[in-house]
Inverse folding.
C-alpha cells in the first residue's frame, strides 16, 4: 500500500521541488544554470529518502501488534475510511467482524500467560490464513480480534465463518486445552456507519453467539 512509502515520497518530493525552485531562481537571475547543485542535490535526495524511510518504518511498526504481528486498532481506524470508499466503488458490502477467544481468562489463570500468548499467536495465524489479500485482520486488544472484509453477497459470510471454525477445530488438537472462538459481525449501512457503532453491534452479536453455542 502507498502509505508504507509515504515518508519517502513526501520527503523526496519536497527536496526535489526545492532543487527545481533553486535552479529556476538561478536561471532567472543569471540566465543560465551552472552545474553547482547536481551533486549536492543528489546527496540531499538520498538523505531525504533515508529519513523518509525511517519515518515509514516507525509509522509501520506503530500500526502493528507486537505479540502477533497483526495490524492493531490504530491501523483499523486509519484504514476504515478507505475501506468504505472501496466498498462503495466496487458496490460491495463492508462487514466488520469481531472474534473473541472463549474462556481465555480461565486459560491464562490455569495454564499461565505464556500458554495464553501461544494460543493468541496460533489463533492470529488461523485468522490471517482465512482472509483474502484485500481483507484486514487486527488484534483489537486482549483476546479480541477484528476483521474488515468486503462481500458481494452476505450469504458468503456464513461460509467464511464455517471455514474459520473448521480451521480452529484442527488448531485445537495441538493444545491441551480445547479452544474455540466466538464470532460476531455487523454490516456497514445496515447496522451503522461509524466504526464504533459497527464494532458495538458486532460485539453484541458475538456475545449472543458465545452464549448460544458450546465450546468446540
Amino acid at each position: 500500500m502507498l502509505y508504507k512509502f509515504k515518508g519517502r515520497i513526501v520527503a523526496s518530493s519536497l527536496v526535489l521541488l526545492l532543487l527545481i525552485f533553486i535552479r529556476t531562481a538561478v536561471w532567472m537571475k543569471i540566465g543560465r544554470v551552472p552545474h553547482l547543485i547536481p551533486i549536492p542535490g543528489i546527496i540531499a535526495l538520498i538523505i531525504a529518502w533515508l529519513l523518509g524511510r525511517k519515518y515509514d518504518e516507525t509509522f509501520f511498526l506503530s500500526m502493528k501488534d507486537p505479540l502477533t504481528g497483526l495490524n492493531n486498532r490504530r491501523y483499523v481506524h486509519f484504514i476504515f475510511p478507505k475501506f468504505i470508499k472501496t466498498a462503495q466503488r466496487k458496490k460491495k458490502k463492508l462487514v466488520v467482524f469481531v472474534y473473541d477467544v472463549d474462556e481465555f481468562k480461565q486459560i491464562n489463570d490455569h495454564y499461565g500467560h505464556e500458554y495464553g500468548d501461544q494460543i493468541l499467536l496460533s489463533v492470529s495465524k488461523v485468522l490471517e490464513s482465512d482472509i483474502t489479500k484485500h481483507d484486514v485482520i487486527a488484534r483489537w486488544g486482549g483476546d479480541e480480534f477484528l476483521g474488515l472484509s468486503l462481500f458481494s453477497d452476505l450469504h458468503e459470510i456464513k461460509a467464511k465463518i464455517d471455514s474459520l471454525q473448521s480451521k480452529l477445530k484442527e488448531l485445537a488438537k495441538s493444545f491441551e486445552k480445547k479452544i474455540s472462538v466466538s464470532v460476531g459481525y455487523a454490516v456497514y449501512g445496515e447496522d451503522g456507519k461509524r466504526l464504533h457503532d459497527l464494532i458495538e453491534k458486532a460485539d453484541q452479536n458475538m456475545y449472543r453467539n458465545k452464549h448460544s453455542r458450546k465450546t468446540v
Observations:
- The CA atoms of residues 63 and 78 lie 9 Å apart.
- Residues 73-215 form a domain with the Alpha-Beta Plaits fold (CATH 3.30.70.270).
